[in-house]
Amino acid sequence: MERVGPEEFSRRVSSKLEDLASGFEVQYGHVWARVEPSRIVDVVRTLKTDPGLACTYFTFLSGVDWQAQGFEVVIVLYSVTYGNTVGLKVPVPAENPSMPTITGIFRSADWHEREASEMFGINFEGHPNLVKLYLPEDFIGHPLRKDFRLASRVFKPWPGAKDPSEAAGGGRA
Prior knowledge:
2 domains, alpha/beta, Beta Polymerase, domain 2, two-stranded parallel ribbon, globular, 173 residues, 25% helix
């Protein structure tokens, strides 16, 4: 197995994806790139199939709520061959957050996309079965969004509250 350092691997990734992604950097030994939603399928396919990258292991997909700036889908892939991790940050708008599914490339992304859809309200276009995992079908809202109000805090004050609105049972804004 040929190990490659993160800086060299970053150079490989940026040279292969220069027309598809932007903002390449190495953080804590991992390569990160910013990818527009319309390009994510091509980027993930290239990372998986290019012999110089060989990111054949899907690790993780989730969302981040940046409130007014919208959401960010974070995808992490790993190259067993070269011993490197590639993270992809995909910005999606706050209104109608949506991006193409990557389940056609990594079947294991199915569960992660379903969870991100349920918890953040991000739609994964073309997903084969985008149904809820945890919550009842009639549940309204997306619990990991920062604007989601926790019902228990609206009716019962949280004893560890530091913010006056939480102490008064005001919940999260």
